[in-house]
Amino acid sequence: MTSTSANASIPPVLAEVVRSGFVEGHHRGSLVVLAEDGTIEFTAGNVTAPVFPRSSNKPMQAAALLRAGLDLSGERLALAAASHSGEPFHLDLVRKMLAEYGLTEADLQTPPDLPLDPVEAEAYLAGGRVRERITMNCSGKHTAMLAACAQNGWDPVGYLDPAHPLQRLIHSEVEAASGETVDTVGTDGCGAPLMAISLVGLARAFRSYVLAEPGTPQRRVADAMRAYPEYVAGTRRPDTWLMREVPGALSKMGAEAVQAVALANGRALAFKIDDGSARAMGPVLARGLELLGLDAGTTPVLARIADAPLLGGGERVGAVRAAF
What we know:
Blueprint: H1 4-8, E1 13-19, E2 22-34, E3 40-44, E4 50-51, H2 58-67, H3 74-80, H4 88-100, H5 118-126, H6 139-152, H7 165-178, E5 185-187, E6 193-195, E7 197-198, H8 199-211, H9 217-227, H10 229-232, H11 238-245, E8 250-254, E9 258-262, E10 268-273, H12 281-291, H13 301-306, E11 309-312, E12 315-322
Antiparallel strand pairs: 1-2, 1-12, 2-3, 2-10, 4-7, 5-6, 8-9, 9-10, 11-12
């Protein structure tokens, strides 16, 4: 028999998998919603335990690059905070940025990868190409990191070492934005150091970025991401849809099913699906946005984000849907 204390540690169901009217599975996780004044308004699961935000940390990494003196703006700054889809316009800009700072693709320490977007990956392979460092979704961030090293005279070879001056600066920015002390540092999928914070801290960081004073590193990152969302994600990605269609929204997903969003009024959310399943993210995000005050009737993008169909014989027979 499972004890009550053990049950208390099991995350709640955030999404259920419904096939042919039958619930065949569940996705558990934790989620927090912040009110306009930054207080906690709604929680599900454990939102104060540290998690790896994965790429949801990228706005903070980009702000640290600005603090290091790197002068980026517009599409370039958005790409520095991106998990790009590997579309041609993404790769073209990465190549331009590398050239602008006297760098080459060989300087990147991203692992060789296919484009993140499945459509782009299929076209890439059909063209006879192989995995490359530049097509990895973090190549924009790594290019900006190398550019900051070049500008400051820092060792470019060790730029992913947690003890490197650049990574120490990023560490400090994550702590300042989240209001938490980072006690655990791991390694992200791209090889960069990864700082663990709580979902509450992640939501507060995003809230602080949209409310920051104009011209500050935090606000510059938020403004660039919101002005050029296609460079943050891609043309077929929920982050892009949300930032393009909800004025003032700042949105960034992370691997292992992490998501953070802040609205212009300071309301914010962050969540993590416990099993890391990306298919649950859209339905959970759409429901979380409703808790932030967005209405599906007046904000059509919510239905688009929420749609996670299940197929049977090539036909739609069900869906993954929010359960909270």
